Amino acid sequence: MPLVFKVGIKPTPSIGLPQKTINVVKKTNTVLEIKGRHDPCIVPRAVVVIEAVTAWTILDLYYMAKRN
Question: Which of 14, 19, 21, 68 is nearest to 41 (CA)?
């Protein structure tokens, strides 16, 4: 039988503080400042992780049931 469940994923926040970085084109030190929200979409990567953790948990429950 298919295993169906819901998962909630919190968006990853942008870091609003100035950060020291390097401009690789100009080869100079610079400061990165993000204005507004520029959150990456993590859903495609999160699905693989959720599937793997689910499989791991099912296997763990299987081994626990075999011990009893």
Answer: 14
